[in-house]
Amino acid sequence: MLGRRLARRERPGLVGVAARTAVAAGTASAVSGRLARHRAERSAAQQTVPDAEASAQASPGLTDEEISNLERLGKLHEQGVLSDEEFAVQKDRILRG
To answer: For residue 58, what pLDDT band results from cuts at 50, 70 and 90?
Structure first.
């Protein structure tokens, strides 16, 4: 009888096998779900990049005059002549045309 008890302790019982199977299945499903989310996020990120590029290409560029005005405005802001609010207002005015 002693030999029989040792043999049982060495092998996992039905509950032990079921527990191991549940852990393995849970881990596999968690990893699978995480990979699916990661792929979906990457796909979404790749789809937004062309949209941003298309909108940048669709909008007309700045004229030389607007660029020089922005440069002068930036220098005045760096020198402290314009406050942050004044700079933002004037920059917005130039960019809107």
So the answer is: very low
